[in-house]
Amino acid sequence: MAGEHITRFDWGPTPLGALTQWPPSLRVAVDIMLLSPFPCALVWGRALTLIPNRSYMALLPGVKQSLGMRFDLLWHEEWPRIGPWVFQALEGRANFIDAPIQLNSHEHDGPAWFAFGYAPLRDEQGAVAGLLHTAIDNTASMEQVRQWREQAQGFEHQVGQYLPSSDHLWRMARDAMVVVSRELTLLAANEAWQRVLGWDVQGMDTVALVDLVHPGDRAEVRLAITDLLQGKAVHEVESRLKHRDGHYCWMCWSARSQGDVLVAVGRDITQERSSIVREAQGLLRDNQRMEIVGQLAGGMAHEMNNLLAGVGGSLELLQRRMGQGRMERIDEYVHVARDSVQRAMALTHRLLAFARSQPLQPRPVNVNTLLLELKPLVHQALGPDFDVHWQLDVAPWPIRVDCAQLEIAMLHLCSNARDAAAEQGVLTVRTSNERLPARTLHGESIPAGDYVAILVEDGGTGMPAEILSRAFEPFFTTKPKGRGSGLGLAMVYGFVHQSGGHVWIESSPSDGTVVTLLFARYPGDLPASDSDIRACERKRGNGERILLVDDQLNLRALMREVLVDNGFEVHEAGDAVQALACYEQDGPYDLVITDIGLPGGMSGRQVGKAIRQTRATQKMLFITGYTEQPLERSLLGKPGTALMLKPFSLENLVGKVYQMLDE
């Protein structure tokens, strides 16, 4: 029987005691162990007493009797390797170690390789009382690995001998390959070298190879060349090499010394580096935007608290006067509350627009209106010790820009002015209409035409010429480490030029700095703003049917009341399921107004898409407090679709409804 060697053994002298005294948990573990097809053994108790199966006993042929031995003594030669795994198992953590151990087994003519597994075993109380040690024969796999390694080394040796004389492999390679003398003269180059960098061997007669390396990378390249000349191999050295046309390409080189020559292989990684830089710039832009938001948060909280105090105080007095039956000055309290709410809404929209990250969305705008709305953020960014002078053109021409990005650019310029003036001084913001002939100003080639200029002037320390020439370079900064990423002015430059405008800086030491943003005049008229919506001719609805979907009960009740007061028939729903059921039963409607953020796992976007599948021409007004891509362009761009960002006034909501129904 498989377990006769265990039953016939005298276990009395061992720490386990007589076989008849073994606990049930140990007996069960022995039975399971004996059924295993692999060499395995039980290691039980604090003394680590060994109970092996017959296959396990053959692992160490030099040990005549392993029954009842201490496990650590049996494996004393390998204990430094396996001991830590044993202790992990005794702590209750099973593990399998596939790093094989070489043994001289009876079942193999030569050395054999085994991988070990350790599984904890528990007694009747659930405590770890021992472990199961399993050995798995990996000899065949190790032999395959050995053969593969020998084949790979042989192939590498063949390639090393074959490469210098293999003309077709040399020419077909996608990576640039060169052979260079120890004096760094180019001896041979493959077609990929010429394709990537434009140079042929003959064209290099008058150009030193080291001169192709970008000056900023030459120190690192010289160190690599020193290693090569000393017989060391060089791997994955990245540097910029000059193309024959004059621009630089990023290359990743590996090279080695081969007799009297140096052989190098280079891969063009220009696109990879550009992609990494773009991602890094995106992350840094986001970080810098959030850094400015953090600087503004305290001041914004102070401003919002003041506005909320005005709202709360007005409502409190209004409630008290109405309770007393006194109606005098009620209009004043309502006016103060509404004015505070309007200012709070404006601040909220400005801050959310500032934090938005998305492609440019240009629209016609009055630059004076935008700057005046930005005033609170500018004052908060500069701090209390700065005076701001606003010198705005009386009637500026309209321009077409992304308002949120222009606000960000202005805040960057204000932040730079604050740092340049040591956080105190005077900042002047000017706007003016400019009719310019074709000319070049400060390196900017400006076509003839009408423009609107925005100038931001500070009385700070100014910039010397060498710093001024690099001011728009990405990552260039003169601020202390941790105070700036060097992307602020680069972002301003990129935004202005992306908008079809021009930007330059005028500065000199101790004479302050003037940054000029120049935008082309928009030839059309400004569209009606939200505040102008209510000026439409229609003053009352004609019983048009509206489906109103919003999970905020209080807000929905207010919107319903004002719509009913204006002559509309309103049906309500609190979530997507109710909205679709209502539309199926009572639809279609003249207009569907739905919040985007709805409970229940189905958003307002999905409600709109489901309704449009039933009726493609259904007019939809989406409302939301989210500003980060609230709607897909494909959905928002369809006729009869509009979006309003919360918070908005009920009066503007009614005006928007009139506008959509009349379209």
UniProtKB/TrEMBL annotation:
Pfam families reported for this sequence: HATPase_c (PF02518), HisKA (PF00512), PAS_3 (PF08447), Response_reg (PF00072)
Gene3D superfamilies: 1.10.287.130, 3.40.50.2300, Histidine kinase-like ATPase, C-terminal domain, PAS domain
Species in which this protein is naturally found: Pseudomonas parafulva
Residue positions where 4-aspartylphosphate is found in the record: 595
Lineage: Bacteria, Pseudomonadati, Pseudomonadota, Gammaproteobacteria, Pseudomonadales
Domain (PAS) ranges: 175-232
SUPFAM superfamilies noted in UniProt: ATPase domain of HSP90 chaperone/DNA topoisomerase II/histidine kinase, CheY-like, Homodimeric domain of signal transducing histidine kinase, PYP-like sensor domain (PAS domain)
GO molecular function: phosphorelay sensor kinase activity
UniProt xrefs under NCBIfam families: sensory_box (TIGR00229)
EC primary class: transferase
The protein's name: histidine kinase
Start and end residues of each Response regulatory domain: 545-661
Keywords: Phosphoprotein
Catalysed reaction equations from the record: ATP + protein L-histidine = ADP + protein N-phospho-L-histidine
Domain Histidine kinase residues, every copy: 299-523
Keyword Phosphoprotein: yes
EC number: 2.7.13.3
CDD domains: HisKA, PAS
